[in-house]
């Protein structure tokens, strides 16, 4: 190498000679150039090993550190989990308890509390694994049975769960706990449809079957995907999407559970109302709520807890959590006004029961839309939910002919369907919505010009229909099995006496 550089230098020097008179000077210049070239070559030769060493060191250096959970996100998710527990116990329990007759108050509280406890245990045993691990388009696998693998022995730390932002994670145990509360309250919602006449043991047996074969598959179909970091390039995007749940693959939007929680539970409750049968005296006797005071307290606790339910579903303490928070606030208030306005127009008076029911209707309807629509869209969804769910518990209930004791389908079914469909409308950036992700590789959003309301509403409708059919079939089979093995109803004399005494040997109130 040195000889080559020196020869080139000498050649260049010789090429620059203009006459024999200058030969000596040129030779001297050439020698100087040659000497400089040799020195340069020597420096290059010396630097080469250093460059190679640096390159080797770079290759040997560890890859970029894996993302670590942000303490703020983790704290927010733990608080959200507590809020959802609050909305179930005591929120939903008191809301339902106040609506039944006093002789059945404790039976409803028991059914809610024990169902919630049962489902939380089943969730950590196998439910979380079936819902949130890779399997097929309908159900997950068994990788997290008994929560195995959430502690990474090799890394000496806890496994992380993806959020909706690239490079942002939360501890998987926190995500699993948050989702456990969703599973628990979904099953508890069903209790209201057949309250005051079902066997306590039948409730629990049904919940095991329905949770296993309806809740976990629907949760998987709607919410399971590989996470944003899996979309590392355009080449793998299609493969990653194919591993997601069926309804996610379709592109349906369900921020916090319009399909998974409300429609799923409402359909199961309606099937139960038919299969358990009507209460003794239904249509002939007055079944007035025994304590609207407790119902109002329960509705208020539901409203407070629902901020964790909806805003927590952002999985991060970010702008989308804030959007879900304010939409939950606004839509619920609008629904209260919508319901009592409808009551005033129909009956001439607005009622406390109507205001409490309107609040729940608004909370239900905004659930799938919470982080997917603008504030204006949330107000419209809430107002419509109040009016349409009022029809759901009056006109539609008469058409269906079922004794849905606490109007689970009229509020949660109708409100959930309304919210799911209107999510596709008000998600549009043309109507103030944040739009949806068009490409998870680049996290590019669908532009206002490209957003199709009709197309997204059709996608939303497919998700709704799949949920309705799936839940109805599983519920019907589950109720039939329980009826054959245990029996669904208590004897008529026990029903007349009240389930508090006959099923649990105690009363809510002592005279």
Automatic annotation (TrEMBL):
Pfam short name (any one): Ammonium_transp
Domain of life, per lineage: Bacteria
Transmembrane parts of this sequence: 76-96, 108-126, 173-195, 202-226, 255-277, 289-309, 321-341, 353-371, 377-396, 408-426, 464-486
Subcellular location: Cell membrane; Membrane
InterPro entries according to UniProt: Ammonium/urea_transptr (IPR029020), Ammonium_transpt (IPR001905), Ammonium_transpt_CS (IPR018047), NH4_transpt_AmtB-like_dom (IPR024041)
Signal sequence interval, chain numbering: 1-23
Record keywords, A-Z: Ammonia transport, Membrane, Signal, Transmembrane, Transmembrane helix, Transport
GO cellular component, one term: plasma membrane
Entry keyword RNA-binding: no
Domain Ammonium transporter AmtB-like positions: 76-509
A single GO molecular function term of this UniProt record: ammonium channel activity
Membrane topology: Multi-pass membrane protein
Keyword Cell inner membrane part of the UniProt annotation: no
Entry's family note: Belongs to the ammonia transporter channel (TC 1.A.11.2) family.
Cited PANTHER family: AMMONIUM TRANSPORTER MEP2
Protein name: Ammonium transporter
Gene: amt
């Amino acid at each position: 190498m040195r000889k080559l550089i020196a020869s080139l230098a000498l050649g260049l020097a010789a090429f620059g000679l203009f006459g024999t008179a200058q030969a000596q000077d040129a030779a001297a210049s050439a020698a100087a150039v040659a000497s400089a070239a040799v020195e340069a070559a020597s420096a290059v030769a010396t630097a080469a090993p250093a460059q190679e060493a640096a390159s080797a060191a770079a290759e040997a250096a560890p890859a970029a550190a894996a993302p670590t959970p942000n303490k703020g996100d983790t704290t927010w998710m733990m608080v959200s989990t507590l809020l959802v527990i609050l909305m179930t116990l005591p929120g939903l329990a008191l809301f339902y308890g106040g609506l039944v007759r006093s002789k059945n108050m404790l039976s409803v509280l028991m059914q809610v509390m024990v169902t919630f406890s049962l489902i939380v245990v089943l969730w950590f045993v196998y439910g979380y694994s079936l819902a949130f691990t890779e399997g097929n388009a309908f159900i997950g696998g068994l990788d997290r049975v008994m929560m195995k693998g959430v502690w990474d022995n090799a890394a000496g730390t806890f496994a992380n769960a993806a959020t909706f932002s690239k490079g942002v994670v939360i501890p998987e145990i926190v995500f699993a706990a948050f989702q456990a509360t969703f599973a628990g309250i979904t099953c508890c919602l069903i209790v209201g449809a057949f309250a005051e006449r079902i066997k306590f043991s039948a409730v629990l047996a049904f919940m095991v079957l329905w949770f296993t074969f309806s809740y976990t598959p629907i949760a998987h179909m709607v919410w399971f995907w590989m996470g944003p970091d899996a979309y590392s390039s355009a080449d793998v995007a299609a493969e990653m999407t194919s591993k997601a749940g069926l309804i996610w693959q379709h592109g349906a939007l369900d921020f916090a559970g319009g399909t998974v929680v409300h429609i799923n539970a409402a359909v199961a409750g309606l099937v139960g109302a038919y299969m358990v049968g009507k209460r003794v005296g239904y249509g002939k006797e007055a079944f007035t709520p025994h304590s609207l005071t407790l119902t109002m307290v329960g509705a208020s606790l539901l409203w407070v807890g629902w901020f964790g339910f909806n805003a927590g579903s952002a999985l991060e303490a970010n702008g989308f959590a804030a959007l879900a928070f304010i939409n939950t606030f606004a839509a619920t208030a609008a629904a209260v006004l919508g319901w009592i306005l409808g009551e005033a127009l129909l009956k001439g008076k607005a009622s406390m029961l109507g205001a409490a029911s309107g609040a729940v209707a608004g909370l239900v309807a905004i659930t799938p839309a919470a982080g997917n629509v603008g504030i204006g869209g949330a107000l419209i969804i809430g107002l419509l939910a109040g009016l349409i769910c009022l029809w759901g518990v009056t006109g539609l209930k008469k058409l269906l002919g079922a004794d849905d004791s606490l109007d689970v389908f009229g509020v949660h079914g109708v409100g959930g369907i309304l919210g799911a469909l209107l999510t596709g409308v008000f998600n549009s950036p043309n109507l103030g919505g944040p739009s949806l992700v068009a490409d998870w590789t680049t996290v590019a959003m669908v532009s206002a010009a490209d957003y199709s309301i009709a197309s997204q509403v059709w996608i939303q409708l497919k998700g709704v229909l799949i949920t309705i059919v799936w839940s109805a079939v599983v519920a019907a089979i589950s109720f039939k099995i329980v009826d054959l093995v245990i029996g669904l109803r208590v004897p008529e004399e026990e029903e007349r006496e009240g389930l508090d005494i006959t099923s649990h040997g105690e009363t809510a109130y002592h005279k």
